[in-house]
Design a protein that fits this description.
Elements: H1 2-8, H2 18-49, H3 67-96, E1 103-110, E2 113-117, E3 123-125, E4 127-131, E5 135-142, E6 147-151, E7 156-160, E8 166-171, E9 176-182, E10 195-200, H4 202-210, H5 237-247, H6 250-253, E11 273-275, E12 281-283, H7 286-294, H8 317-329
Parallel strand pairs: 1-5, 4-10
Antiparallel strand pairs: 1-2, 2-3, 5-8, 6-7, 6-9, 9-10, 11-12
Bound molecules: heme C and copper (II) ion (CU).
Length: 337
């Protein structure tokens, strides 16, 4: 009865992960309810049938144990715990591996709002617009303190950490608005750090993307306009990054055509295995490139001098995201999304 009540209160399921997470939750819930019943009924049974006036005066039972029963219970509990672990692990692994055709959106969290930076250059505040039925990968960082992206109806949550990227992915399954919360206490207005995920039909999403950047307000399934004042943007993200590549002087030391200047070329850098001066190998992902820009001395590329200046304090998170988008666009694999 309690279980049925709890299930009534369950949140709507709005992503591909929601049914799986709920199934596991139900499993743990039922195990708990059954264990609770066995323990409480068992205690009552012993209380009543072995009460003091049932056994002869001045004699207490001397119990030495029952090895078979005890190992049986231990084994059963171990099996249950392993089932829960394995089940959770399988789902967790799935959640950690975004499909390669995911729509990538950058998220920048800061006290106390969310920014969503799209490949086409759009920058939305507190409103994440996604198509239904297509995998979306969020590549997230924070401008200040720890935050955590939490979309309860999607059953996804991921900490967001300054100076590094963390990510999560999902496929929205229901058209409409869903809430985003910050799930890591981050200061005075933490509880007001709210956003929405606006899920559109694929056609509506495409129409929204095709609409001129000046009118960025997405069509609203609920009829309300929540974010009409998104910043106007001129270029797509990779083109913005190209501007920094020139104006910040990267072009003096890094080519985009494969030729070696003072530093390695950016061509086909993204996703490649880079050999470092200390012999280690690194995959050139978002975090590696970000660190190369902010702390160039930390990991030196083998065969190159340690001459790159740091760009810490000169580039914002949105700037770095655009440079990474530019570098991505120079890789055959990742180009053209
Ligand atoms: C004065 C020359 C110079 C400038 C200017 C410069 N870099 Fe570098 N960069 C280097 C050198 C040399 C290396 C290789 C040694 C190292 O890892 O620091 C490098 C390494 C890198 C790497 C790692 C490349 C790899 O193949 O693993 C990235 C990414 C990078 N730079 C990005 C940038 C960006 C973005 C800018 C502009 C905002 C920039 N650099 C400006 C000289 C420079
Ligand atoms: Cu917070």
């Amino acid at each position: 009865m309690i279980a049925l009540l709890l299930m009534q209160w369950r949140l709507p399921q709005a992503s591909n992960f929601a049914p799986g997470v709920d199934k596991l939750f139900d499993f743990v819930l039922w195990i708990s309810i059954i264990s609770f019943a066995i323990i409480v009924l068992g205690a009552l049974y012993f209380l009543i049938f072995y009460r003091r006036n049932k056994i002869p005066e001045n004699m207490s039972l001397y119990i030495t144990g029952h090895t078979k029963l005890e190992s049986g219970v231990a084994l059963l509990l171990t099996v249950i715990v392993m089932v829960i672990f394995w089940w959770g692990w399988v789902d967790y692994k799935e959640m950690k591996r975004a499909p390669s055709d995911s729509l990538e959106i950058n998220v920048i969290a800061k006290q106390w709002l969310w920014q969503f930076q799209y490949a086409d250059g759009r920058l939305l505040t507190n409103e994440l617009v996604v198509p239904k039925g297509k995998p979306v990968k969020l590549i997230m960082t924070s401008e200040d303190v720890l935050h955590s992206f939490f979309a309860p109806t999607f059953r996804v949550k991921q900490d967001i950490i300054p100076n590094t990227y963390t990510s999560l992915w999902f496929t929205a399954t229901v058209v409409g608005d869903q809430p985003i919360y910050c799930a890591e206490y981050c200061g005075t207005a933490h509880s007001g750090m709210l956003g929405i995920i606006r899920v559109l039909e694929p056609d509506d999403f495409e129409a929204w993307q095709m609409a001129p950047l000046a009118s960025q307000t997405p069509p609203t399934p609920s009829g309300t306009i929540l974010n009409g004042d998104a910043a106007p943007v001129i270029q797509n993200l990779a083109e913005q990054g190209k501007v920094f590549y020139v104006t910040k002087g990267c072009s003096a030391c890094h080519s985009v055509d494969g030729g070696t200047l003072v530093g390695p070329s950016f061509k086909n850098l993204f996703g490649r295995d880079v050999e470092l001066a200390d012999g280690k190998k690194m995959s050139a992902d978002e975090n590696y490139i970000r660190e190369s820009i902010m702390e160039p001395q930390k990991k030196l590329v083998k065969g190159f001098p340690s001459v790159m200046p740091t760009f810490k304090g000169q580039l914002s998170d949105t700037d770095v995201n655009s440079i990474i988008a530019f570098i991505k666009s120079l890789s055959a694999k990742e180009g053209g999304h």
